[in-house]
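Consider today's protein:

***
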Amino acid sequence: MATREGQLYPRLKTFVRCAADELNNSCHSIAYASLLLPSFATVALVLPLPEGGAPMNRLVGLQRDVRESQVYRDMLLAQPEDFYLSYYGYIPDPVQKLFLVEQTIQAAQAPREFINDVYRVKVRKSPPVVHLDISRHDGQPICSWRDLQEIKNELVGPECEAIDLFPAESRLVDTAHQYHLWVMEDPTFRFPFGYDNRIVLPQPMQYNEQTVGTAARTAALGDGGGAFNVMIPHLTAS
């Protein structure tokens, strides 16, 4: 179950991106921005990143910048009392505030991070599960399922299965365009749902939208099934 500490990290990243956006006046051009110290900011500008699905570079390990923790520490300590009341349920005294801040920073940091030309991935291991926290450098939504599959394959294993949880509203965390995969480390484990066999087409199937709409309306009116056309790409034997 998500904790308040776990919910805080995406908000902090969003805050940093918004601060960078004000400096650059273009959120689509921001690849990575971090406030290194309260007195200045460092911002990297790039061309718009691909929407997803196109070939991407392999992920490489990222060395943690110790200054990043200080950024979040300063940001948390500068928050008003209402912030602590909202997130922690009470207004802490100075000693309690320091403890909460350190606890939150430790919970938010990932032991390992990886990046490529499009994505940044934080990896947290809690056997038998590996948690992949995935976001784009430009902060935009992730539109490609294939990219997520490739990231899972590369960081955990092609035969390891993962889930993308759609939680109950009572524990929903929706603060930024961050995506989470929970991957089983055991490559022989299989969830008790999903398809049994592999079917991968070189091109996606194309449905005749007009015919599908007509069939659906016919079925809804009780006038019969009404089959619809499906265009299946030509498959060649390999």
Remarks:
- Confidence is low (pLDDT under 50) at residues 1-47, 224-228.
- The longest helix spans residues 4-24.
- Residues 1-48+65-108 form one domain.
- Strands lie at 30-37, 40-45, 60-62, 112-115, 119-126, 129-136, 162-163, 178-184, 206-207, 230-231.
